[in-house]
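Bug: token stream looks shifted between consecutive jobs. Job 1:
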Amino acid sequence: MKYLILIQSNPTSLAHWETLTDAEKEQFGAAHFALTDALLDSGHLITSQGLAPVETAKQVTVRDGAIVATDGPFPEVKEHLAGFYLVECADLEEAVGIAARVPDAAFNHVEVRPVFDRSMLDG
């Protein structure tokens, strides 16, 4: 089964980031690369990506057939998606174990969510 591991950014995690030295920031990034390599080697990783800053985002809606795209930043947003890992696991317990290895889990929450699959509709 596929699971999406969501890495959030929020004022607490950003404040923690600012306390890190340059060397610690480099180690943090290296830890993400190491986890990615380990998950590739174990066959769990489908894909993973970090996301560009929220200021580069667009919010898109369709109103009366017209596309409306609004530029960021979005001041009302205190928490936003910073990156993700899409993994293949035997069960939720295995996915939670992988999520615990994400460097961000040491100072922020990391969300694990099963990916909806059309086969779940077969009954």
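Job 2, same session, no restart:
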Amino acid sequence: MFLLCTPKKGLVSFFAAIAALMTVPTFAQSSNAWPTKPIKIIVGYSAGGATDVLTRLVSVSMGNTLGQSIVVENRPGANSNVGAEIVAHSTPDGYTLYAFSIANTINATLYPKLSYDPIKDFEPIGMIAKIPNILVVNPGLPVKTVAEYVRYAKDSKDGVTFASSGSGSSIHLSGEMFTMQSKIQMLHIPYKGSAPAVTDLLGGQVESMFDNAPSALPHIQSGKLRPIAVTSAQRSPFLPEVPTISESGYPGFDVQSWFALVAPAGTPKPIIKQLNAALNKALNSPEVRQRLQDLAATPEPGTPEKMAAFEATEVKRWREVVKASGAKAE
């Protein structure tokens, strides 16, 4: 995942200290009285990444609506599986939530054995936002369009190289999906994170990358990377002159990193309803929408049912891509 600004640690420590003083809740507690103490959202990545930043952004507004502070706790490891497992096995009382993302629907196939089910063990609360990827190339590569990119790969003896933040990441699988549709030869070069991948792309060690928009945009604006196409179904308002892959000859191509909130399976429906209402209120507030725009993210307010249907579609879609690409968990 790409890096963004890290929130103030003092505020997080303050909320964490409050949470530590609270007693363990009784499950028999009426949902009508909920919430009576701080809520915890576990993020499966380190502080400063997209999942962390977006979760913290909506958590402040949600806490104000619910009348309780919301503590964001980072539990990184195994491509977010460590944090997911903790929440999946937590008491379903609405006080422990999880920042669900595209990675979890990919992990359902990428990891042959998980101690949790990404669909059955969670109750969807709602989507937070989507962020498109951008097909970018080193300016030294003689291509400016998707058609030229494909032609270059076909004419090159070894095809075209593309970097990613790691095997099985959405950045990697964006490239694999394009390989499947375009039938060109592409050599995947995995890195341990987006930052070193971008560094080598800038240096010309690799030729291209399907990078997350917030990571790629500064280098595009400085002229150090050339945008070829965006992976979302519609053009990005941040790069309105750059076409989509779909309109460049591959209709239906739509890949975006996305972020959501879930609770453990069995969480009472009235609590899910309250959380969903608080999340949608946050996503509709001018302050949050402006901040999301600054992060190249599109807010996605909606219902738990809509998110459940989307999740199921994503698991199926990425199962096909993971199997076809032969991607393995690192």
